[in-house]
Amino acid sequence: MKTLAWKTFLENHFIWIFITFFGLGYGANEAVIRVTENVRITQTQYQEYQHLKQDYPILKKQLDDKTAEIANMKLISVVISSPIDGKRFSVEEAAKGISFKVDVNNNVWSDRHLWIAVKPEGTNLWYPQEKINLKAGEFTTKVYFGKDTGKDEIHIVEANDAANTEWRTYLQTVQNTGKYPNKPIPDGAFSLAKVQIVRE
Q1: Which keywords does UniProt give here (predicted)?
Q2: Is residue 44 scored above 80 in pLDDT?
Q3: Per-residue pLDDT for 23 more than 50?
Q4: What does the H/E/C string look like for 23-68?
């Protein structure tokens, strides 16, 4: 009778007995994993360690690849070959457009943009004129000026995406209104090279 009673008890309470013993066993496993003689970690900590150990070669390769990519990046190098620095032009000639030539020696990064911009000497007033639409090589165009005398700087400007968008919007406004307002150079843009010309 006692045997039958125990059998009935086990059948009716099997799931709870299983959970209880499994929990006790899991708790024991959590406590007994030993790394060294004096260091013990839990099962969860050990699993996290194993995952990190597996992921390390992949993460290290990604880091090495990115490090090599950065090491191979070169600064954009530009040389203005025409006009020469200090060249003098008549006001009429400058208003019709001065021939401008620049050599881009290194590839332009995908998130950087090159622009031609004019700045009257001694001011922070910039007049973007044209974007240089090439990655590397020689670019030739014309640069235009107002009908007055003075000294001006022609700059090659490197711009990030935000500055590029700002100057594209500026040129669209110029096209729509026919007016050329001066503006400070936008954040994210800086001059790579310049030449000075004199209008007289």
Answers
A1: Membrane, Transmembrane, Transmembrane helix
A2: no
A3: no
A4: HHHHHHHHHHCECCCCCECCHHHHHHHHHHHHHHHHHHHHHHHHHH
